[in-house]
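In response to reviewer comment 3 from the previous cycle, which asked for concrete evidence that the modeling workflow produces usable outputs, we include below a single protein chain processed end to end. The sequence was submitted unchanged, and the resulting structure tokens are shown without manual editing.
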Amino acid sequence: MPTIKRILLVSAAYTLGSCTFSPNLLNGNVTCHKNDDCPSGYFCDPVAAVNGAIGVCCKGIACSNKLSPDQIAQIQAMTG
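The workflow returned the following structure tokens.
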């Protein structure tokens, strides 16, 4: 195999093999019960409106306080 083709093949293999999954979630869009339920860098913030029965994954402090009434209603429907 000519050298240039070999270099291109190795470069393509390296590029394809170096892809990683990196979630970029909006705060409060993923529900959780504990910190382990959230992606790395997020924590589970309990939603006070449902007595902390369920939380939302947050990067910052108290993002559950910024949920809209519609979002809280959806979470309440999930907890029954």
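Confidence is low (pLDDT under 50) at residues 13-23. We consider this sufficient to address the reviewer's concern, and the full set will be provided in the supplementary archive.
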